[in-house]
Design goal:
alpha/beta; Rossmann fold; Arc Repressor Mutant, subunit A; 4 domains; seven-stranded parallel β-sheet; 28 helices; 12% strand; binds adenosine-5'-diphosphate; binds zinc ion
């Protein structure tokens, strides 16, 4: 006990271990506070740099930093990446046999670990608590701390048990970290983890390198076009609502020459592990997944996240899109969305088993999501407002780049709503969007004839719009709450409908369909990483990448764990000729310099010969 910490100061550890020049945001302040023994709650967006906030204090305090993480499947990767920068890290979980576990326990007891990763359920056992009391603990880091929130989207009951840390180890500092940041989640973290006295560190949640775009759905070819035009050969995640949806879409992408794999909770554990491993290790694989995929996956070079179904909450959406571009390079968050999403989600909520309070909560989540989809203002400003942050127009979202045309849809809305009212009042009937559109357009079908709808006063009064335009009107009225869904997905009026019909309120709608048919130009495709290089450096960059692929394979880690693209790019441009020059490049720490320095310098030198 009472061993000396490995590093004397934070700056030194940052430079020596991680090869970085300066801290980002408030990293330095968190590190100082926790190293001095204080508790902290750290809210930072994905890619913000949370890990250093506990990894460096763990090096500056005696003993091992104990990291609580819900993601057993990723512990091996995390520990391997730390070994690459020369840290002594290990994990204890159910995938290990008794001898492996015993070996890790001995290392911990002997003070030979910098970091020890544990799953929350393990911490609840008496055996683990006894083990921890036999060694020295530098700090507790509670990762993905929003999992303690019972109303959140990732609730894990085992997280509630973490309150015990405050009792058992009152003198060990605790730091809770998350990328989910509504005020409600924040309050729950403080309360349930007994972090009442912790200092708060809340970063801006803006991720300026991610371009946010939401488009009206036209079909599955839309996604293929998006990937082919803007992110060919790059890694991405496509989120779907259903398991069957992920499989179908992955197959479609493959048929169009885009390497893709499905991922959902219904696949067996081995297949899921394999897919995750391939996603991390290969360049340019797309995973088509349910929300079961992604938490804790630290792949920094995911270039796009696409949603082909409407997410259930803005919180979940923001976290999912945040998995793009953690390396700070340009990335895209793209969504396609349509009337069927609104209908599907509203009826899912209505038929769900939860309490009324829970349904109201889900309804509020959905309303916020719909408001984001239908906004005519900056997407990012809308998103950040949800997290309590105010910004001006961002210049890097679809509505900023190509302001949507808005038209006065009051008359169209009145035509639709009065048709609904007439059917209801005069005939005691309710119908879905399809039949109503047939009536408005005056299109005779077997079903309109059966119900004698051609005798309605509103028959054919909406001939000026086509089907797609009417569906846009229905969708937007539903999203605004000026229309609602009744039994069997039929449409019914609300208080808002009456205000519209009485002309008390104007209905401004996005002219999505009008714009779509006019084939306006899309935002310019971002350049791939190689294209950002000066012409002379591309060849060297590609050779360095080929070398990195081999080195990563030999060490069985993902390529970005050896060096990020940004490091290889800098090497290709600056062409260092000595270890000292190489060491000055951001991202090259002492361990990596020793392990890879000679090989990299050799490749650069071979270029010049
Ligand atoms: P988070 O856990 O918040 O999503 P990470 O801790 O994984 O983020 O960090 C995101 C990326 O930023 C990582 O590749 C990390 O190495 C890098 N990074 C973190 N802090 C710094 C820093 N001070 N300087 C340069 N790069 C950093
Ligand atoms: Zn914007």
């Amino acid at each position: 006990m009472g061993m000396q910490p490995r590093f004397a100061d934070a700056q030194h550890a940052l430079r020596e271990v991680f090869g970085y020049e300066s801290f980002r945001g408030f990293q330095a302040e968190v590190i100082e506070h926790v190293t001095a023994g204080g508790d902290a709650v750290v809210l930072m967006p994905t890619g913000g740099g949370k890990s250093l906030c506990y990894q460096i204090p763990a090096l500056l305090r005696p003993g091992a930093g104990v990291v609580i993480s819900p993601l057993i499947a990723l512990m091996q990767d995390q520990v391997d990446a730390l070994a690459q920068v020369g840290l002594r890290a290990a994990f204890l979980n159910s995938t290990q046999d008794w001898a492996e576990q015993r070996a890790v326990e001995r290392q911990f007891e002997a003070g030979e670990l910098d970091l020890l990763y544990l799953a929350p359920e393990r911490l609840a056992t008496a055996g683990t608590q006894e083990l921890l009391s036999r060694g020295e603990i530098a700090l507790f880091a509670i990762d993905e701390a929003h999992c303690v929130s019972q109303w959140g989207h990732d609730f894990r009951p085992d997280y509630l048990g973490l309150a015990v840390l405050a009792q058992l180890w009152p003198d060990v500092p605790r730091v809770a970290l998350t990328a989910t940041a509504t005020a409600a989640t924040h309050a729950e973290i403080r309360e349930r983890l007994r972090l009442e006295r912790a200092r708060d560190f809340t970063a801006s949640f803006d991720r300026p390198n991610i371009q946010y775009r939401i488009e009206p759905r036209t079909g599955s070819a839309q996604l293929v076009r998006f990937i082919k035009n803007e992110h060919p050969g790059q890694a991405g995640i496509v989120y779907c609502l259903t398991r069957a949806g992920t499989e179908k879409l992955a197959q479609l992408l493959c048929e169009h020459g885009i390497p893709a794999l499905p991922y959902h909770a219904g696949l067996d554990a081995a297949t899921r592990r394999e897919t995750q491993a391939r996603f991390l290790r290969e360049d340019g694989l797309t995973v088509v997944a349910t929300i079961a995929f992604g938490m804790g996956i630290d792949k920094p070079d995911v270039r796009f996240v696409a949603h082909v179904d409407l997410p259930k909450s803005v919180e979940g959406y923001y976290q999912e899109t945040g998995r793009a571009g953690r390396d700070g390079e340009p990335a895209t968050a793209w969504m396609s969305y349509g009337l069927s999403d609104v209908v599907q989600q509203r009826s899912l909520i209505a038929s769900s088993a939860g309490s009324d309070a829970h349904k109201r909560l889900q309804q509020r989540h959905l309303d916020a999501m719909l408001a984001l989809c239908e906004t005519v203002e900056c997407r990012r400003a809308n998103l950040l407002a949800y997290f309590g942050e105010k910004i001006g127009p961002c210049g890097n979202c679809d509505t900023c780049l190509r302001p949507p045309e808005v038209y006065d849809g009051t008359e169209a809305a009145q035509k639709l709503l009065s048709t609904i009212v007439r059917l209801d009042r005069e005939r005691n009937q309710r119908f879905g969007a399809g039949q109503l559109i047939d009536i408005l357009r005056g299109r005779a079908t077997a079903k309109t004839q059966q119900w004698r709808h051609e005798t309605l006063r509103t028959w054919g009064i909406g001939a000026e719009f086509n089907d797609a335009q009417w569906r846009d009107v229905v969708r937007q009225l539903l999203a605004r709450g000026d229309l609602t869904l009744a039994e069997h997905n039929t449409l019914a009026c609300t208080d808002g409908s009456w205000e519209v019909m009485r002309g008390q309120r104007e209905v401004l709608l996005r002219a999505d369909v009008v714009l779509r048919s006019a084939s306006v130009s899309r935002p310019a495709a971002k350049k791939s990483q190689g294209e950002q290089l000066p012409p002379g450096a591309t060849g060297l960059f590609e050779r360095l990448r080929a070398w990195r692929a081999e080195a990563a394979k030999a060490a069985s880690v993902p390529p970005y764990v050896v060096f990020h693209d940004s490091v290889l790019r800098t090497v290709a441009v600056e062409r260092p000729v000595s270890q000292a020059e190489l060491a000055r490049i951001s991202g090259v720490g002492a361990a990596k310099l020793q392990r890879y320095g000679e090989q990299v310098l050799e490749i650069v030198a071979a270029e010049d010969r």
